[in-house]
Write a structure and sequence with these properties.
The chain contains seven helices and five strands; from the N terminus they run αααββαβββααα. It is mostly helical and 193 residues long. The strands form two sheets. A three-stranded antiparallel β-sheet has the order 3-4-5, with no helix packed on it. A two-stranded antiparallel ribbon has the order 1-2.
Length: 193
């Protein structure tokens, strides 16, 4: 009787042990990824940009038969410098977060933020070092500069900063490979205190 009672517990312990070893091997595989060559790094970066939805905010839109889509001539160039903000009703704005039609600027309790130019033009990340890119996404520092203001919402830098070093390197490599687009994004409008 004791053997039949103990046998199911031993079997469960064995199965758990086998599964936890599989999970451990799976985790080890993820952390021991081989370094990517330049082309693979850029391709990985493009995949991460697409998966992460970076175009939703950082690419100006054009209207198509399917609705607004990223403008292929201005991919990841940020909020257009020549796009004026529409007037807003102060009362409505108090309880809401408002996006412009192109989704490149957002107004909320933090003020108004504008999506940055991520192209390798000097008006974007053209002069940025990889270290600045890491500082921007790991510490949430505007333009990747220590001592600068925080990156404002809705930019999810806290989530992106959890990426592996290799994935951040891939993002940076991809962004640096893009066509440079000259576009001076407006400065954030901070709330009046």
């Amino acid at each position: 009787m004791k053997t039949t009672f103990l046998l199911p517990f031993l079997l469960l312990a064995f199965i758990y042990s086998c599964n936890s070893n599989k999970e451990k091997k799976s985790d080890e595989t993820l952390t021991e990824a081989k370094p990517l060559d330049s082309l693979e790094l850029i391709e990985r970066g493009e995949y991460l940009v697409e998966l992460g939805g970076c175009h939703h905010c950082h690419s100006p839109k054009i209207m198509s038969e399917r609705g607004p889509i990223a403008d292929p001539n201005r991919l990841l160039s940020g909020h257009p410098a020549d796009e004026a903000l529409p007037p807003k009703d102060e009362e409505t704005g108090k309880g809401y977060i408002l996006f412009t039609m192109g989704l490149t600027s957002t107004t909320g309790p933090w003020g108004t933020s504008f999506a940055a130019n991520l192209t390798p033009d000097d008006t974007g990340i053209g002069s940025w070092s990889e270290a600045q890119f890491f500082t921007a996404l790991r510490k949430g520092k505007h333009k990747g500069l220590e001592g600068s203001r925080p990156i404002l919402p809705p930019m999810p830098w806290e989530d992106l900063g959890k990426m592996t070093d290799q994935d951040l390197k891939a993002l940076f490599a991809y962004l640096k490979s893009l066509k440079p687009v000259e576009n001076i994004v407006p400065a954030a409008i901070l709330p009046q205190m």
